[in-house]
Write a structure and sequence with these properties.
The chain is of the alpha/beta class. It folds into two domains: 88 residues, Methyltransferase, Methionine Synthase (B12-binding Domains), Chain A, domain 1, CATH 1.10.1240; 120 residues, Cobalamin-binding domain (Rossmann fold), CATH 3.40.50. Helix content is 56%, strand content 10%. It has nine helices and five strands. Strands 2-1-3-4-5 form a five-stranded parallel β-sheet, with helices on both faces. Helix 6 links the parallel strand 1 and strand 2. The protein binds cobalamin (B12). The site of cobalamin has 36 residues, from helix 3, helix 4, helix 6, strand 3 and strand 4. The site of cobalamin (B12) has 36 residues, from helix 3, helix 4, helix 6, strand 3 and strand 4.
């Protein structure tokens, strides 16, 4: 399906989806996602044009105190739930044995973007081990030693966590000197965070499109 067609289909349902999300109607949200899947809308379009777009909008309403924390929490839970609906698409592709470990740093509780990254790896036939929010670095090191991935990705939302990220990258690089590391996430969008990769094995990849380029080049 052409991207313009999928965006058109999503645009048609977006307002209904967003209203259902804000009023906590999980069933209605899931039905809309199922409808889009039924039309063959690709996973990445649903992730970006429905889930990311609506959660960014939730963030704006939350920031301006137009909705409560409770409403934001329900919207987050519904979004995480809806992402699981797409699992049959994600795991349908043949797996190549390539592996990626994806994690949020300690004190980073925003995990939806990182989960999307893990799902994109799976969609392209990699095993995407997603560690979720607030992962202590010692546990990350342990898992990396066990799984021996081809790449480790960090997702960062809060600029205030940049120091923690740099510490994690440093610790990981000391223990696994040749391990390719990708950092990405909202903290780096718009050039707000000056990130200078500390070594040639570390790179900044902020979008799912750029991630797909990385996967293509390394598959
Ligand atoms: C849900 C949410 C929460 C939830 C998160 C729960 C969860 N399960 O994830 C909770 C309640 C925990 C939370 C807490 C806080 N939050 Co909050 N949160 C949000 C909200 C509304 C949505 C986040 C989200 O899911 N976005 C959708 C995903 C898909 O977007 P994404 O993360 O950007 O990911 C995309 C890309 O960045 C990329 N990507 C992400 N990671 C990576 C990694 C790689 C390697 C690659 C290639 C790509 C990539 O891929 C994704 C698809 O494009 C945002 C609003 C927003 N603008 O996002 C605020 C927001 C991020 N939160 C904010 C704030 C301030 C906080 C708190 C500090 C609030 C507080 N006072 O307590 C705390 C901090 C907690 C912590 N220590 O982490 C601010 C951040 C402002 C800033 N710029 O620093 C925002 C922007 C809200 C706002 N407008 O003010 N939050």
């Amino acid at each position: 399906m052409k991207q313009s067609d999928s965006n058109e289909l999503i645009d048609k349902v977006y307002v209904n989806y967003f209203n259902a999300l804000l009023s906590g109607q999980r069933q209605a949200c899931l039905a809309i996602v199922e409808e889009l899947m039924g039309h063959g809308v690709p996973l990445k379009s649903i992730y970006l044009s429905l889930f990311e777009r609506s959660m960014y909008a939730v963030g704006e309403l939350w920031e301006s105190n137009s909705i409560s924390v409770a409403v934001e929490h329900i919207a987050t839970a519904i979004t995480e739930n809806a992402m699981n609906l797409l699992h049959p698409m994600i795991f349908a592709s043949e797996h190549s044995g390539r592996k990626a470990v994806i994690s949020c740093v300690a004190n980073e509780y925003h995990q939806i973007g990182g989960k999307m990254v893990a799902d994109i790896f799976e969609l392209h036939g990699w095993d995407g081990y997603f560690l979720g929010a607030n992962t202590p670095v010692k546990d990350l090191l342990h898992l990396v030693g066990e799984k021996k991935p081809d790449v480790v990705c960090f997702s960062l939302t809060l600029i205030s966590n940049l120091g923690v990220l740099l510490d994690h990258v440093d610790t990981l690089s000391c223990r696994f000197p040749k391990m390719p590391i990708i950092v990405g996430g909202q903290a780096f969008v718009g050039g707000e965070t000056a990130f200078v990769p500390p070594s040639s094995s570390v790179q900044l990849v902020v979008s799912l499109d750029a991630l797909e380029n990385f996967i293509d080049q390394n598959s």
